[in-house]
Amino acid sequence: MFALFTLVARQCGRRCGMCPLRWRRRALCFLTGSGSGRMAAASGETPVAISTPCGDRVGGMRALAPAPAGTGRISMEYQSMAGTQRVRGETCGTAVACSGSSRKEPQRRRVAGVALSALMAGLLSGCAALPAAGPTAGAFVGNVDETAVQWRDGYLLVPVDPTVLAYQQEEPRPTFRAIASRSLPSDTGIGVGDVVQVTLFEAGVGGLFSSLNAGGQGSSSVALPQQQVARDGSITIPYAGRVQVAGSTASTVEKRIVAALRDRAIEPQAVVSVAQGNSTAVTVTGDAVAGASVPIPTSGLKLLDLIARVGGPRTPIYETAVSLTRSGRTVQMPFSELVNNPEEDVYVRPGDVVLLTRQPRTYVALGATGSNNQLPLQGYQMSLAEALAQVGGLNPTLANPMGVFVLRREPGPEMLARYEGAAFERTAPGEPGATRLSGDVPVIYRFNLREPSGLIYAQDFRIHSGDMIYVATAPYVPVKQVFDALSGVVSPALSTVSTVSVAADRLSK
Q1: What pTM did the predictor assign?
Q2: CATH architecture classification, 195-276
């Protein structure tokens, strides 16, 4: 701001008629819009008609050559801090008659000083209100060694190095194998509500289930109408009565029917099949899939096959979460993990509930990046470099490569064990100023992407769901914002100061 003040002061001095140099004998030359005006000669010298360089204000001058009465060049000398200076300059196109005295100088300086002070007060008061994308890199690091791990204002600041990468742990991955299996489940048998198809056969014509067609051909078999298993778990077989089928396999039910008809039919045989396995259905629902109840065939049904039968997810796989609920236990994972890891494609069982929802694992990018956004993580192996690439990288005109941070919550006991002695000290319980680390603590990882090693670390550092990536702005950005914000204000303000000075000069005449 001091440089900005000096620059504006110099410009104001020139606009207001104040000489930017310290003259041994000061004089004030006030120029009008045409470049002509009055100049008070130094004391003891005779006023002479001279022409000055356009816009310069000098005092204590004496002409070395007569001034022409129009446009031309002139030589003159004047006294400054550097000694006697000799100048050869262009005239302003109009000879300036130098006469009068220097009594107007204090008044003009006071007017210009008041106007300049008001202008600079407005400029300086606006610096604190400039917009910003967030805290600077210095606000994170403080005044200590930037390479040291430190506990600051409720968070742990960790500069990333090979040791940090060696200790980094992968984000916990849920697995369906905790409640399910990849092996084919055992047959649960026929259940209540299933629709059963029974076909009976006899060894010869003329038995209980024999019949003659229109051509006189005999048949020794009959297909019974489909029956739904009653709540008591039984179905009806002619001449055998109620046969218990619930909880039994089809082969077991066939044996029961044959045993019940052996004394009534001619060498009876039975074939039992499940037309609709309502009791073995699996429910698929959620806002990312068309809900349905899908029966499990005898061959079994895997999770991906089940989802495919209902049309698959309606949202992008990286934004879809799939959960499996069995026996009161639920496991949820990203759908992309289910697709990419065949070990997670387990068999479903009757009564399972599969839920597909739009629930992306995301991270947030803020600060001087290509764009501030919340984006989904693509799997569990996304690095910081890939995450920055998704938002357009660092903004080349605003970003501070030395101030790239990843904000995350880590287990407190693990951080204490890792950095005890470096950032933490054990104290007696109840000691004033001590902080008890329990649960998760905020951790800020710092990267210096100005160094080649920082780029390598960014390739190896894994981003977790819920992480925030923040890129600080470069130190010069506030200065740039000042100039950008005031570029349309300074020039009109200086013009106003000049106008005030003109008016004061005319009133004093």
Answers
A1: 0.56
A2: 2-Layer Sandwich (3.30)
